[in-house]
What we know:
It contains four helices and no strands. By secondary structure, the protein is an all-alpha fold.
Amino acid sequence: MTAMGDPKACAKEVAQKLGISTATLYTYVNGDGSVEESGQRLLGGTVRKR
Length: 50
């Protein structure tokens, strides 16, 4: 999610635009915009182990 990768982005504003809570946002997306493991599963993608 590119909006979360923007250092000027506010998680609260991004979540509001998506119609979700910030807790839900951070369940699926890291603060740097990369997708969490749960987000990968939701999207049906391959989960990479860290």
